Amino acid sequence: MIPVREEILTAGLRSLYNLLYHQFAWSYDIVAAAVSLGRWQSWVNECLPYLNGPRILEIGYGPGHLQAEMDSRGLQVFGVDASPEMAHIAQKRLLRKGINSRAIIGYAQYMPYSSGVFDQVVATFPSEYIADPQALSDIYRILKPGGMLLIIPFAWLTGKHWYERALSGLLNVPHRSSDWENRFIQPFIDAGFTCSLTEINLNSSAILIIQGVKEPAS
Predict the structure, then answer these.
(1) For 79-99, what is the mean pLDDT?
(2) C-beta separation of 47 from 126 below 8 A
(3) Exposure on the CB side of residue 131, measured as CA atoms within 13 A
(4) How many domains does the chain have?
(5) Is residue 218 domain-resident?
(6) Does the model's pTM come out above 0.70?
(7) Which domain holds residue 191?
(8) For residue 29, what are the CA distances in angstroms to 37, 38, 153, 188, 203?
(9) Is residue 206 in a domain?
């Protein structure tokens, strides 16, 4: 059972993140950089070595940084995000870079794409929707046979300074336990993906990567 104090903290952080992603979307990059000690974007970019597309959908594209980076690498990039405020920020960023955006406003549970059209789907630091059976079903549907879902669910600071330990609480990283790995990958296995989980240790921080592969065509 989750302690009451932890439940209250989780609920409070969830509300804070919701505000940050909508009404205060303009401050997202500032806050993300502050709570990660400037590492947020480098954490996001850790997914890039895994992305070869060529046709990639990003779910929850936020301010559009990863959209721009993938486009610069010659990938055919699409995006879905439920926040109109974030969509506005991302569109402005991509327009300034001369990128013809294919990012839309929408929900992971009901995506307006044909079945089997994407080579990869990526989501970095998504909220609880990523484990929603309906969202996973739709992600599975739009991936080609053999296609991959790549998720960075969270990162954490590993430094020993007091401020690093304090900020780790704001990142809301789940506590390790004997079933730590199974807790994260079971929803994806249930959706039909063959899954693996990788922990990447960086400079005074670490990230978790989940890879889910759709069964290849026989």
Answers:
(1) 96
(2) no
(3) 12
(4) 1
(5) no
(6) yes
(7) 4-213
(8) 12, 10, 18, 29, 21
(9) yes
